[in-house]
Amino acid sequence: MIVKVIKITLLILVIVAIGVIFGFADKAQSTQVFNKENLKINIDYETENRFIDYEDIKNEVTYLKTSGVKYFDQLNALELERKIGNNSAVKDAQVYKTIDGKLYIDVKQRKPIVRIFSINDSYYMDEFGKLMPLSTKYTSRLMVVNGYVNEPFSIRYQLNYSELTDTLASITLLDDIYLLASYIDKSPFWRAQIEQVYVNKDFEFELIPKVGNHKIVLGGVDNLTTKLNKLMIFYKKGLSKTGWNEYSEINLKYKNQIVCTKNFN
Q1: How confident is the model over 109-127, as pLDDT tens digits?
Q2: 32-109 falls under which CATH superfamily?
């Protein structure tokens, strides 16, 4: 019984001690002036993209609507997360404060997989099919899509491919562009091979490779894996023998066959 009382007493003392520590920490933070020495920013640069940097995030934290000194306890971590997350280049932001007066911010950038040139404007599409505006400070080197694309950024920028209704999907090319771009981005071989997708007047896809003086008529994105697997075999067994400039056009639209047009130039 005595042992149990001692354990309970010790537990109460620990809880009180923790409360006292946090109380002192809160009091100290209420008088601690916030400055850049207290700010620890980590930006995920797993890809080569540099849409945002330290200064961009620091400005979000240190900006004051009214003049005066900013104290550490005035910083709202959740509010800062929402504020930083509103940046079009940010995929995720985690903000937290420590009892020693440090503010930590971890930022993950969005990853664009294709740049689209529509009739009216240009923009990126990210790995989840959501549109991104261009950046004034950095240009990402990506596969491009151009041609007969009439999909203004302003209409679709808030939508995600996975959230599209069947009705909307039936009147846009962007869902098919996402399927194609996502497939190519996930394949090291095709990502290194294809540099441009052209949408012709029949709204079919034509692929322009980085190597060889030919275009690849894909047609639609139906049976995409079968078409590109067929092309890969043709590259390895056909063009490797005849040469990359043997044909001006390689057509994958027809089932179980590849139709090639000779290059007579």
Answers
A1: 999 999 999 988 999 999 9
A2: membrane protein fhac (3.10.20.310)
